[in-house]
Amino acid sequence: MGVVMQQAEALSLEQIRAFLEGSEQVAFEASSRAAKYALMEALLRRHHYAELGRPDKGLVRRFLQQLSGLSRVQTTRLIGQFLRQRTVCPTAYRRRRFPTRYTPADIVLLARVDEVLLQTCDSGAFGSHHGSGHWRAGVRGRIGSSASVPPPLTIDLGQF
For 135, phi and psi rounded to 5 degrees? Predict the structure, then answer.
């Protein structure tokens, strides 16, 4: 059975108290999150929540919890938002991301450097790779052998 409660924000504190005492086992749920938030904001404005005494604030808080179906913590967070911003609105999801360190130009440069290094590695200048997951130094890469050590790899960044 669905019951539509209209003008809930127009109830007086005495009516809210009587409603809560008689409806402990009844649960209500608004149709959407936007409707819940609009109802909460209207009720908090109508009753001048910031000016209420402690018992009356608790009464309004319990009424909001009962009507919205939100938890005590969520209701407290939204009331706090109303007290700070004078509005109750959904906050946008903010994904936690690591800060960007590279500009798009840096990324292009890194890709080009990778290409050059990959070409150099494929030519065998740094040894060979045999599917075992480990690099094995070529004859020229051994330290202490009589073979000549190749000169260090130099990349001219001016070409990029």
Answer: -85, 140
The vertex-4 CA angle with 36 and 48, nearest 5°, equals: 45
| pTM of the complete model | 0.50
Classify residue 92: in a domain, yes or no.
Answer: no
**Structure tokens of 53?**
């005494």
Give the other-Cβ count within 10 Å of 62's Cβ. 15
Higher-scoring residue by pLDDT: 105, 82: 82
Mean pLDDT of the chain: 75
* Residue 54: closest CA among 42, 45, 62: 62
Mind listing the pLDDT tens digit for each residue in 114-140? 888 887 776 665 555 544 444 444 444
Question: What are 134's strand-pairing partners?
Answer: 130
The sign of the torsion formed by the CA atoms of 75, 86, 9, 53 equals: positive
Q: What residue numbers bound the domain in which 24 lies?
A: 8-85
For the chain, the domain total comes to 1
pLDDT greater than 80 at residue 84: yes
Q: How many helices (H) and strands (E) does the chain have?
A: 5, 2
